[in-house]
Structures are given as structure tokens and as C-alpha cells.
Amino acid sequence: MREVTHLERAYHLCGGPFALSKICGVSNTSAHRWKTKGHLPRTEWTGETHYAEKIEEATQGAVTKEQLLSCRPPRKP
């Protein structure tokens, strides 16, 4: 049985990709892409966006920023 990721848990707690997209102010497609890839966009680690903070607030700390940022996107060669 596969373990549920922190991002998947956040989706469930927020009410799905549509609700998460509203919380973060992005399109439903973008939010769905995060779930498919298993991590937030690169811009979270470069400081351009703050989606992890918004998700932590929306889940009332059940999923923390640190948990969401623990799964980094792979680096391109």
C-alpha cells in the first residue's frame, strides 16, 4: 500500500484541487499538476511564491510548510 504524501493530505483537508487552487490563487490545472508531480512548483524554493504557507494556514497546521517543502522537485541536468 502506497503512503499518502503531505501534498495529498493537504488536498484532502482543503477539499480537493479546486479548493486548493482557490486558496493559493492559481488555476485548477496548476493545482492538479502539483498533485500529479508530487511537489509544489520550483518557485517555492526560490522564494517567488508562498503556497506552502497558505496551505499550512488553510489546514490549520495539520500539514506544515516544512512538510510540504521536504519534497523538492528533481534538479534538471
Structure description:
- By secondary structure, the chain is mainly α.
- The chain has one domain (6-69): 434 Repressor (Amino-terminal Domain).
- It has helices at 6-14, 17-24, 28-37, 43-46, 51-58, 65-69.
- Helix 2 (17-24) packs across helix 3.
- The longest helix has 10 residues, at 28-37.
- It is globular.
- The mean pLDDT is 91.
Architecture blueprint of SSEs:
Blueprint: H1 6-14, H2 17-24, H3 28-37, H4 43-46, H5 51-58, H6 65-69
Helix pairs in contact: 2-3
CATH topological fold name: 434 Repressor (Amino-terminal Domain)
| Regions with little confidence, pLDDT below 50 for 5+ residues | none
Distance between the termini: 32 Å
What is the total domain count? 1
The main sheet comes to: none
Q: How much is the average pLDDT?
A: 91
Q: Identify the overall geometry.
A: globular
Tell me roughly what share of residues is in helical segments. 55-70%
The level-1 CATH class: Mainly Alpha
Beta-strand content bin? under 5%
Number of helices: 6
The ordered H/E elements are HHHHHH
CATH architecture: Orthogonal Bundle
Count of beta strands? 0
Q: Could you give me the name of the CATH homologous superfamily?
A: lambda repressor-like DNA-binding domains
